[in-house]
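Notes from the 1:1 (GR / supervisor)

We went over the backlog. Supervisor wanted to see one worked example end to end before approving the batch request, so GR pasted a single chain during the call. The sequence is below; no edits were made to it. Supervisor asked that the structure be written out right there so they could see what the output format looks like.
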Amino acid sequence: MHPFTTLTAIAAPLPVDNVDTDMIIPKQFLKTIKRTGLKEGLFYEMRYTVEGNKIKDFILHRAPFDHAEILLSGSNFGCGSSREHAPWALLDFGIRCIIAESFADIFFNNCFKNGILPIVLPKESTNQLMASAKAGKRILVDLEKQTVMAEGQNVPAYRFDVESFRKHCLMNGLDDIGLTMKKLDGIAAYEQKQKINTPWLAA
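Structure output shown during the call:
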């Protein structure tokens, strides 16, 4: 998992409440267990017609938002089923941070496990950031300071909360496997001790 410390990037405004995981990645794209290639299905039913034609005015099809690394949205983002393909698809597109008024719990947790920073901000703050994004200003996210602001913002940066352990994992690029790998010496010592105390298990 790539470490997340600071990010200055284009932000795509998606002012929609209750964006569920089926909207993020429809069920027909859930057949794979790979984390790559899913960007083609991201927001598929919002990006394409029933015939498969591109909806050109959808935000992620319009420059510069087609290279966005930050997504701005409304309340209850990521509700619906608990599919982990949803953060996979966002990450595969290039989204490293999502700023919304609120998140569904399971999706919120899955974001941290996959290297995406979900930020909760009040509606007024998200609306101001969306206005800045639409005006072509990039958004600056600083995880260490726990602040977010738009380029040239003339008010203080918005502060956000993040649990300290999750912050540590993101800043150091540690997912569940990475956390386990840091304990390899302890695991090896335990296994060696077990071979001595219970040799029949190693036979």
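Supervisor's comment: The CA atoms of residues 106 and 141 lie 23 Å apart.
Batch request approved.
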